[in-house]
Design brief:
Blueprint (H helix, E strand, L loop, with lengths): L1 H24 L14 E7 L3 H12 L6 E8 L5 H9 L5 E6 L9 H11 L4 E6 L2 E3 L4 H6 L8 E3 L2 E3 L5 H22 L11 E4 H6 L15 H7 L5 E3 L7 E3 L5 H15 L4 H27 L3 H24 L9 H19 L9
Parallel strand pairs: 1-2, 1-4, 2-3, 6-9, 7-10
Antiparallel strand pairs: 4-8, 5-10, 6-8
Length: 364
């Protein structure tokens, strides 16, 4: 009976978190028909991204926004990134260039590069994405920037990954989905904790009032989530989940490359505020414990009651995360949510263990 009570408590805590995620999943969104004409600075940091820049610069330049500039930062690239940037800048005056030499790399890697780009920005409202990201529509800048106001100075967007066949691609998209459901929901609940640099906006006023990245400049990653963790408040944050305001990037194509990326992301989370670490730690721990207890209860107890508790938990999860998946255009993941979660939980466990042995270093 102790095992059964334990499973019931774990299921209850799991469901509490899923209900928290419903802050986003069941959020009623209204179309914003206002065409914000305020000037915007789009800032993109690129390191060895010549191929992606050739594809994506034309898409950024084609944005249907009346007043924007693009600041392209070459972060000491070894390929033709600088030449590609210059070729576009020579044809379009909206592009400005920031070029970092190799001898500047020790200053703080991507954060130092972004700092120089922000200092060059002419406009107070700034949007950020990565060199390998494409906007989902020509309305991306307008949709994201229309959420800025005197009070709302930090905008969280959704950075999706391109769909392709295979388990790895499904797992990457599921992890991205659940992460977005979390940070959108926490923001709506008044406890914002992170955002993604693939699709993020904030004002220069907020950046300078927070002293930029200075408090975490020596940490290789976290130009996005650590900045949001420090700067975001209940009052100054807004989310933008309009399908025309997504960005899409190519996911990793090998398990090894993806695990390296996740090691870097997970290692950054230990620098979050204590309340966020506790909330996120409880969520992950009880997900792990649920699957362990579910297996043990099936082996040692009569299967009927454990099956009922497991079914309730999976039903609540599938309804709430399914709604989030529909919002974020990941409908085909819905039937596989329990399987993908089980797989992800144990991969994350292996990454936690790996991070305790070796630490990730630079952003690239």
């Amino acid at each position: 009976m102790v095992l059964l009570y334990a499973l019931g408590i774990v299921v209850l805590i799991n469901c509490f978190y899923f209900i928290l995620f419903s802050k986003f999943s069941f959020l009623q969104t209204s179309e914003n028909n206002t065409k914000d004409s305020y000037p915007v600075s789009l800032i993109i940091c690129a390191k060895d991204e010549a191929k992606n820049l050739k594809k994506n610069i034309p898409l950024w330049l084609a944005q249907d926004h009346p007043n924007f500039e693009i600041i392209l930062i070459n972060d000491a690239s070894m390929d033709d990134t600088l030449e590609v940037i210059k070729s576009f800048a020579n044809k379009d005056p909206r592009i400005s260039i920031v070029n970092l030499e190799n001898n500047e790399a020790f200053w703080g890697s991507k954060k130092y590069a972004l700092t120089l780009g922000i200092k060059q920005a002419k406009n107070k409202r700034m949007l950020f994405t990565d060199a390998d990201c494409r906007p989902s529509s020509e309305e991306w800048i307008t949709n994201m920037s229309s959420n800025f106001s005197k009070q709302k100075q930090l905008i969280l967007g959704y950075g999706a990954y391109e769909k392709s066949a295979g388990l790895l691609n499904a797992l990457i998209r599921y992890e991205t989905l659940i992460t977005a459901a979390q940070y959108f929901s926490y923001a709506k609940a008044g406890i914002p904790y992170m955002g993604v640099g693939r699709n993020l906006g904030y004002t220069s006023d907020l950046y300078y009032s927070t002293n930029g990245f200075m408090s975490h400049m020596k940490i290789p990653s976290g130009d996005d989530d650590l900045f949001v963790n420090e700067a975001a408040t209940r009052e100054n944050i807004e989310i933008c989940c309009d399908i025309n305001a997504f960005t899409y990037s190519e996911p990793k194509e090998s398990w090894k490359a993806w695990k390296v990326q996740k090691k870097r992301h997970i290692s950054t989370a230990k620098f979050y505020k204590s309340k966020h670490k506790i909330l996120l730690g409880i969520y992950y721990t009880f997900n792990l414990v649920f699957w362990l207890l579910a297996g043990i209860c099936f082996l040692l107890l009569d299967w009927k009651i454990p099956l009922f508790l497991i079914g309730v938990r999976i039903l609540v999860q599938s309804i709430i995360l399914g709604k989030a998946a529909l919002k974020l255009k990941e409908k085909n993941l819905i039937p596989f949510i329990p399987f993908l979660e089980l797989f992800l939980v144990f991969i994350q466990l292996s990454i936690f263990i790996s991070n305790s042995v070796s630490k990730p270093s630079r952003w690239k």
